[in-house]
Amino acid sequence: MKMLILGFAALLATGFAFADTQTAEPVIHDKTGFFVHLDIAKDLSSNIITQDCGIVPAQLIYLDQQGRKHVLDYQVQGMDCLGGN
User: Fold this and answer.
1) Backbone dihedral region for residue 83 (phi beyond 0: left; psi -120 to 50: alpha; all else: beta)
2) Rg (Cα) of the chain, in Å, rounded?
3) Distance of alpha carbon 20 from its chain centroid, rounded?
4) Torsion sign across C-alpha atoms 73, 75, 78, 79
5) This model's pTM is above 0.85
6) 77 or 1, which is more confident?
7) pLDDT at residue 7 in the model
């Protein structure tokens, strides 16, 4: 009986040791507007699609000075318009 209790205790201790206790930082979704102050310390990813014509979506993912992750979704003018101004 003691061996069963010790085995169960060892199994629980192993489970707690390998449990993932890290909490994921929440991603901050910035609002777009005319006057948006961006505190960019490091650019992680940006995708600007220039092969389209007209207004196309773009996204910027960056870290601020405190190391928090931000996502900014915005619109840009595509660059592949033939004969456009």
Assistant:
1) left
2) 24
3) 20
4) negative
5) no
6) 77
7) 60
Q: Which residue has the tokens 């994921």?
A: 24
Distance CA 46, CA 21 (A): 30
Q: Tell me what pLDDT residue 64 has.
A: 93
* CA dist., res. 17 & res. 41, Å (int): 35
Q: Looking at 1-85, list the stretches that DSSP marks H as alpha helix, in order from N- to C-terminal side.
A: 2-17
- Identity of residue 10: A
And the tokens for 63? Answer: 């870290």
Q: In the structure, what pLDDT confidence band is assigned to residue 36 with cuts at 50, 70 and 90? A: confident
CA distance 79 to 31: 24
Q: Go through the domains of the chain in sequence order and give each one's CATH number.
A: 22-85 (2.30.140.50)
Amino acid at 67: G
DSSP string, 44-60: EEEEE--SSSSEEEEEE
Furthest-apart CA pair in the chain: how many Å? 85
